[in-house]
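User: Continuing from earlier, I have the next pair ready.

Assistant: Great, send them over.

User: Here they are, in order.

Assistant: Folding the first of the pair now:
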Amino acid sequence: MIFSAAFASTNAPWFEDFHSTKFYSLGLQSLSEEMVENFYSVVHSSGEMTPDDPTTVSQTDAKSGGDEPVSRSTVISERIIRDTTITAGVKRLYDFYCQVCGIRLETPDGPYAEGAHIKPLGIEHNGPDVVGNILCLCPNDHVLFDNGAFSVNDNMKLVGKKSGRLKVVPRHQIDHLFLAYHRKVIFKMGKTK
């Protein structure tokens, strides 16, 4: 299998289960085995990835035409570890219905919604991963909200949309400080680029 060589050295116990499904997931999109193989062959043929170590970038010696790497460099990445149980809990509070448009997406695997952070988690914003900072949104409204196309007033009226209110169940206490931050920093209505 295409990832066998890449993960063989990791001795990851989960790999055999993952590998046996012949179906891989990347973010929100699921990829078939054939799509993954095609992607891997393109990346591998470009000389930017070795089959035995997916975290290594190799440069092949163009003069010799060989597959041996001339040099290797280790790639280290840092990311925020999100508490998925908090986001899952918020989505269950709304039974996967979008708090903005009311749409509930049904997939073969069950209903789908996204947890949107009002004050983003990244370094620039440093928002917390807490219930009061998360909304249950459909993918479209999540993208619009994250990119400042609309925001929410403290009275839950939507700003930047023609009309509407954010639907909120009593058990979901949204922190008004995060809403104020979103309106001030993220919301782009009337701002010039």
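And the other member of the pair:
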Amino acid sequence: MTKSQRTALAVLSAAMLMTILDGSIVTVAMPAIQQDLGFSPAGLSWTVNAYLIAFGGLLLLAGRLGDLIGRKTMFITGTVVFTAASVLAGVATTSAVLVGARFLQGIGSAIAASVVLGILVTIFTEPRQRATAIGVFSFTGAAGASIGQVLGGVLTDALNWHWIFLINVPIGALTVLVAVRALPADRGLGWSAGADVLGAGLVTAGLMLGIYTVVEVERYGWVSAHTLGLGALAAALLATFVLRQATAVNPLLPLRIFRSRTVSGANVVQMLTLAAMFAFQIIVALYLQKVLGYNALQTGLAMLPAAVAIGGVSLFASAALITRFGERAVLIAGLTLLLAGMSWLTRLPVDAGYVTDVLPVMVALSGGGLVLPALTALGMSGAEADDAGLASGLFNTTQQVGMAIGVAVLSTLAAARTETELVAGAAEAVALTSGYRLAFTVAAGMLGAALVLGATVLRKRPTPADAAVAQVVSPA
């Protein structure tokens, strides 16, 4: 790997770390933000969902714009927007301003992140180097969420919650300065190639309305006119988007991409996995603070073993294991570890001990360091060369949509169960724990479904070991 390649990889990884970290750094600071800005329990989730919805909803359009005007230009533009929005979030004094700033952060992240994988696979063309680069890149994504919780706890306790956003400013500025010189210049297809603005509007509106509907279930109920009506409208918008993609001259998401069983399967598995993993991180942080009485710093440190486990496996083991056994085998092993950890949480007691009840789950999360690099490799390798940018945008989209859906659904289920227990006369800690256990049970079901799909839908790709065996069996 040349010096220029290492520098470019560092820039891309730093941007991804900042993007993923910002989705999770807010989690341990949520109680402090709620108290300071007066968020309602349901409204508080929008400090996370506003970011994830904008991010997931705009990735496809941003990826297409990268094809038209150049990926380097999009990357730098997105990083500038994200950094400016971080300033606004850092100085927010009302809940409305903070949610708006988080939405703008999501827009900036979508613009930058939509082209990152496309740039990476262009820079690293040799298979072994690409596997190593993907391992490093996946490490920043996998560990970023856990690192965000540790850093969020440190900043919230040592300073205040405003600094969890302001810390992005120097990082973003440095990333832009280095990216200008380190990333290879590229020329886009030009505006004449066309961008499906209508399609982008349909999918963004559909996703935003769908997540909003789920978040508001706690207030209106699952079978209310509000929930059913808005849910039906969201489904209609997304169905219209699919129809638009089948008929548009320059579709935002050409449906041919789904002909690849590997691409389709990897994206569905990723959505289920990240829905479970990201919601887990938020709910565990709430459990540690609201039930066990941890402060923000203690919560961040309690989550540190997960960051170390995920980062170590992703950075030092995933590339070698994928090369030796193939992406599918590594994916299944990682999902098995995650499922074991999540299943352990379904029995979480009110008076849990950290070493006996929480730490084993943090260690089991090392499976994430296997799952995410394997899914990245599968999601990109299953696409034709001409669809690499499209596959990158789709992969990032399902990642963020999965995270948003996971937070909305599992947080809502936990809150509804807690309310039911409180009405029945249960103590607050008991009611909260019951709600969290339900969320972990559903998350375990998501991981179980991901494991089944990974084992049955994704095809096994030949590995060097397979080739050696074939040579021995049939030397001719």
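Worth noting for the second one:
The radius of gyration is 22 Å. Residues 196-249 form one domain.
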